[in-house]
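Q: I'm building a small set of examples for a reading group on sequence design. Run inverse folding on the following structure and report the sequence directly after it, with nothing in between.
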């Protein structure tokens, strides 16, 4: 995939990963706003209902108290009693006596028979004889209204605001309804009476209870169980929206808090490939490669005849194995620089050894790109000129991955050989068409891949491959190096099969140059090189 495409896809994914939790956060915020609003409405409606019941209970109790009074109605002693009653019921404004279509006296008004304070016929009379005037002018202040409730000539006055002054946001509307009379007798200030009436009419025959969401508002109706009244609470949508907006900000923050790290995670995961590649690029630029050397021995006498140079990446104080970065280096176009650096290190670290022991050699792995031109050969020639190191001491290991353009690879390989560098086909047998290459590619040796050595002598299907490869190599006059020999049974078997050379942990692990010198001194077989 092209880098730009990959980046675009990564950005899209990271954005999605960010927006998804934000979307969920916003959605949850809306749900939460609705739920909270419904809860608050219900709580509010319950409080209003309790207030209404308390007021009604006080009104009934006060009237019953007055019915017990034995004094002459409106006598001075009776007026004292009426004042006492008014004071003992805090929701009541006044208590008095009425008859013959007018008020006769009250705790607040005193004996008013002389003045004419007419009373219209009651708006409602209950079966148990209570009269209701839902909307009378207050005798003290005409614009204020008062509710009168009375029986047998005794009445109490109630300020309708007492029913609705339950503390709440002023955006909500509250109405108290006499359910038998079907009449709203108290509303919060500024409430839309017509809207409340409609809400009551819509819900009056329903079960009440939970909040109902309508187009423009959420509505709750609560009916008193033992009294003929109900409360209607209405929260206009506009009020809900402000609530929602506040929650939306919360939802956005939560969504972003979850989404941004998720987005960053996606971004980092996706771009790690590039960042690792960038790191490798920097490492190559700064020459942070190291080389370890693995002994290659003659199986006839376990004599160390040469070594394979295996590159390592010094990264954050640790050595990274080539399997993890060589493929990336090939993709990123860094392999040629790595090959050059390996050659440099080899010549620096093993130059003296190679000069002293002309039969000792180092084999260097080359990448696909190195086989597409003679560039590396030119570099190699230039470095070896006048170095005292023979071309045959630097050998080339090429894998089938490098044969993608067979004609070019064939030419390049031939050029290496012409210049005196023996060429090995590495990991032989693991590619699709190893055998076909042998026909057209002239090389000097095959390295049998570890996977065949591993299964040798076993029942596995691959276990029969190694002998064939060996026999064929023989008939073509090629040397054979077996890779990954870990135990002596494998070595014995290969020896029996007539394999010339071996490489593996049995003989030696890949070692830094200094340890290789020690290794060579300890394994000083007759012709093995002495330490450098
Ligand atoms: P390779 O060229 O086939 O190298 C042999 C690999 O097998 C090495 O792994 C070596 O450490 C490992 N090995 C050797 N003997 C044994 C054994 O007895 N048991 C086991 N389990 N492993 C054994 P390493 O060093 O990780 O190299 C892996 C591959 O990376 C190499 O395979 C080669 O294809 C590539 N490579 C290494 N250095 C370079 C380089 O400088 N340039 C290029 N282009 N590729 C390189
Ligand atoms: Mg190799
Ligand atoms: Mg190999």
């Amino acid at each position: 995939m092209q880098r730009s495409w990959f980046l675009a896809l990564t950005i899209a994914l990271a954005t999605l990963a960010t927006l998804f939790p934000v979307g969920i956060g916003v959605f949850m915020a809306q749900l939460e706003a609705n739920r909270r609003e419904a809860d608050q409405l219900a709580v509010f409606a319950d409080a209003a209902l309790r207030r209404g019941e308390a007021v009604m209970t006080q009104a009934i109790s006060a009237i019953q108290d007055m019915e017990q009074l034995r004094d002459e109605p409106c006598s001075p002693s009776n007026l004292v009693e009426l004042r006492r009653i008014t004071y003992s019921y805090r929701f009541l404004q006044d208590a008095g006596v009425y008859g013959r279509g007018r008020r006769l006296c009250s705790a607040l008004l005193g004996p008013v028979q002389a003045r004419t304070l007419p009373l219209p016929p009651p708006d409602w009379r209950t079966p148990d004889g209570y009269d209701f005037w839902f909307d009378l002018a207050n005798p003290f202040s005409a614009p204020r209204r008062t509710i009168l409730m009375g029986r047998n000539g005794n009445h109490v006055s109630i300020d309708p605001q007492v029913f609705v002054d339950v503390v709440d946001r002023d955006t909500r509307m509250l109405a108290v309804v006499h359910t038998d009379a079907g009449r709203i007798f108290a509303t919060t200030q500024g409430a839309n009476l017509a809207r409340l009436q409609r809400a009551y009419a819509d819900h009056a025959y329903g079960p009440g209870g939970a909040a109902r969401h309508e187009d423009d508002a959420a509505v709750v109706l609560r009916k008193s169980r033992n009294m003929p009244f109900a409360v209607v609470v209405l929260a206009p949508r506009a009020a809900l929206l402000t609530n929602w907006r506040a929650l939306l900000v919360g939802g956005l923050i939560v969504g972003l808090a979850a989404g941004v790290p998720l987005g960053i995670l996606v971004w980092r995961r996706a771009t790690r490939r590039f960042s690792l590649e960038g790191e490798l690029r920097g490492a190559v630029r700064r020459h942070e490669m190291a080389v370890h050397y693995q002994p290659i021995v003659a199986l006839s006498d376990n004599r160390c005849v040469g070594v394979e140079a295996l590159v390592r990446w010094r990264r954050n104080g640790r050595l990274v194995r080539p399997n993890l970065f060589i493929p990336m280096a090939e993709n990123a176009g860094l392999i040629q620089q790595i090959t050059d650096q390996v050659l440099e290190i080899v010549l620096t670290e093993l130059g003296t050894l190679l000069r002293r022991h002309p039969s000792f050699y180092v084999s260097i792995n080359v990448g696909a790109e190195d086989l597409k031109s003679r560039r590396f050969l030119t570099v190699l020639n230039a470095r070896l000129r006048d170095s005292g190191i023979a071309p045959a001491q630097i050998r080339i290991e090429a894998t089938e991955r490098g044969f993608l353009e067979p004609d070019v690879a064939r030419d390049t390989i031939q050029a290496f050989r012409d210049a005196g560098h023996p060429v090995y086909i590495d990991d032989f047998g693991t590619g699709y068409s190893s055998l076909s290459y042998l026909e057209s590619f002239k090389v000097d040796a095959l390295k049998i891949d570890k996977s065949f050595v591993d299964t040798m002598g076993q029942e596995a299907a691959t276990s029969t491959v190694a002998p064939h490869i060996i026999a064929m190599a023989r008939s073509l006059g090629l040397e054979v190096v077996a890779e990954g020999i870990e135990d002596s049974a494998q070595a014995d078997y290969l020896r029996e099969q007539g394999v010339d050379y071996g490489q593996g942990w049995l003989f030696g692990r890949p070692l830094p140059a200094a340890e290789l010198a020690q290794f060579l001194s300890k394994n000083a077989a007759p012709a093995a090189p002495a330490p450098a």
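The chain has two domains: 1-274, 289-522.
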